[in-house]
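User:
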Amino acid sequence: MDPIEGEWAPSGGSQRGPEPPAGPIPAFPFRREVENPIDLLPLGAVEKPVLPSLSILLPALNEELGLAEVLKRIPQATLHQRGLAYSIYLLVQSGRGKGAAFREFVPKIQEDFALFMDPDGTYPPEAIPDLVGLLGSDSPVVLGSRFLGKIDEGAMTSTNYLGNRLLSWFASFLFATPISDVCSGMWAFVSERLKSLGLTADGFDLEADIFAECALRKIPIVQVPIEYHQRLGEPKLHLKEGFRIALVLLKKRLRASTAVPRDESTPEATSAGPAGS
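Assistant: Predicted structure:
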């Protein structure tokens, strides 16, 4: 009996299959000429290399107002246009301070570059691409200098201005390395060079500690002019912190020994054009 139209044929039914194709059966494996062959890449080469990566480190302590503003102003489009894949890390300060939080996180950095910035609204996130863009084998550390750039009216008291100037002069004298803004809260690094520093700071002496380590190891620092704005929130630094930073610089210099590994490539800090120019 013929199968009902629209139903499957009974299993095992004998039905006539399709006619075999005419002509000789092609040999195996099948071969086909390629009109435009693709050139093979050398072993290990890739057409689109992995993008260089950046970690943005924001140490925070009671800085909710500034942190929100800083996150909003990070120039994501510019970073992407310059081919940088970036991650943002909020470093929650422990009882020992921002220096300890920074030191504890540094060994965990996996990105190629690292940028450290106080998220209190005083430092310009818009300058991040320019600082990072200067990093390289000959310029492993870049500093955003407030005193080479522009300080907004009311952003720094006359006492703080004088104190910062004196500390920068003192640091330049102690380590024989000119520095315009030793207490700047905006630094960029080649990550591997950052990890090589023997940092010991626990609190607000972090920036002075970074400078001292670079100076002792003869690691060049490029200084870039940046703008400095009024702080969003209550100030945390007091006069006593300035004396503590000076003491830390002096102790670091006196304890330095010839056993400290040095990079003799460039012994002095250098200056670059203003960020964003």
